[in-house]
Amino acid sequence: MTATDRTPTERDASAKRQWIAVSAVALGTFLLVTAEQLPIGLLTPVGSALSVSEGAAGLMVTVPSIVAAVAAPVVPILVGRMDRRLLLVALMGLMTLANLASALAPDYPLLIIARVLVGVAIGGFWAIAGGLAVRLVPASRVPRATAIIFGGVGAANVFGVPIGTMIGGLANWRIAFGALSALALAVLVTLLAVLPPLTAAQPVGLRRLAGQFRNQGVRVGILATFLIVTGHFSAYTFISPVLQDLSGIDAQFVGPLLFGFGVAGIAGNFIAGATVAHRLHRTVLSIATALGVIVLLYPVAGLTAVGGVALLVAWGLAYGGVSTSLQTWMIKAAPQAVEEASALWVAVFNLSIGLGAFAGGAIVDALPLQGILWLAGVLLLAAGAAVWGARRNQSLR
């Protein structure tokens, strides 16, 4: 029976199943990115419990991010034409076990090993999920489905860390990891139930991946992603000590303030989503420049509670549009190779999270906190300069 032969009721039921599948994948991306960034709000309690410095505890972000950066292009290559449904379920099973191991880890080395497994699941799942929209919904619905799937990433950025921080503060950091494990199991069951068979028609290959670097728009998008995400996470990974030590805010208010950061980020996501379709280049340029200015102002204007909170909200508003605008940039830069461009983008995005956290940790252990803010500001303004250089590319207008 073809789509045109179906009754309206059958077509409605089919459409409903499609959007349930899309929503399940979006929930998976939300969970994975939340798992990657959860330690940001838990550095102090984890460091205290396992007797390591906050800089060393920052490796809980660095390690899975770097592993995910490698896994993003490698997993699609290794699995070839494997059914993507079974692959996503397997990766979610790995995430379930990895978070359970994190919650039960008796010492720091075992916790880091568990975070390595988290990185494999993140990179593989995110890379595959980015290209699934064309397999799950009709062509006319692909843009909307893609936005929903990547909306899971944005939602994780703005809600995952605050909620995880509050759970860790109200209960225990191990409870926060345990809750992620339980949620991963629920997502696994959902994916198994609602996803149709998804055998790959054309596997990702090394030659097609490498070919994307000949595309000027892709090159600029990758560079901008590297600079923006590295700059952001070099500072944001240590936002809890920044708020407490620089702005003089009590530790009990950090969780609620990060939630406020998330609410501002949601607003920023909607603002960016409304502008990228018609003003892509201007939107990305504005985001990078605004982030650079805000972070550089923090050591000067953020030395009071009021100043610190105001800049934090502005920071969240600007960063909330990063995922939407950069993903749109990559799609417009490589409309005929979205899966390959997305795999590279995911790899660079995750590598940048890890490098940002690592650089921030090194500076925090060696220099005053202001040092990470200066580093972040310089990188973010450099991203703005790179984007400005692509202003004549008509496909990115």
Question: Could you explain how this protein is built, in words?
Answer:
It is a single chain. The protein is mostly helical and 397 residues long. It has two domains: 1-204, Growth Hormone, Chain: A (Up-down Bundle); 207-397, Growth Hormone, Chain: A (Up-down Bundle), CATH 1.20.1250. 80% of the residues lie in helices and 0% in strands. The protein contains 17 helices and no strands. The protein has helices at 8-37, 43-50, 54-57, 59-79, 84-104, 108-129, 133-136, 142-170, 173-194, 206-211, 216-236, 239-246, 254-301, 305-319, 322-333, 338-366, 370-388. It starts with 7 loop residues before the first helix and ends in a 9-residue tail after the last helix. The model has no long low-confidence stretch (mean pLDDT 84). Keywords: Cell membrane, Membrane, Transmembrane, Transmembrane helix. The chain crosses the membrane at residues 59-79, 86-106, 112-134, 146-169, 175-199, 220-239, 251-272, 284-306, 312-331, 343-363, 369-390. It is found in: Cell membrane.
**Overall structural domain count:** 2
- Which percent range fits the helix content? over 70%
Order of helices and strands: HHHHHHHHHHHHHHHHH
Structural class: mainly alpha
- Named at the architecture level, the CATH assignment of the largest domain is Up-down Bundle
| Assembly form of the protein | single chain
Mean pLDDT: 84
By DSSP (H or I, 4+ residues per run), the number of helices equals 17
Identify the CATH class of the largest domain: Mainly Alpha
Global morphology: globular
What amount of the residues lies in strands?
A: under 5%
**Uncertain ranges:** none
Distance from N terminus to C terminus (CA atoms, Å) equals: 42 Å
How would you name the CATH homologous superfamily of the largest domain?
Answer: MFS general substrate transporter like domains
Q: CATH fold name of the largest domain, please?
A: Growth Hormone, Chain: A
The count of β-strands is 0
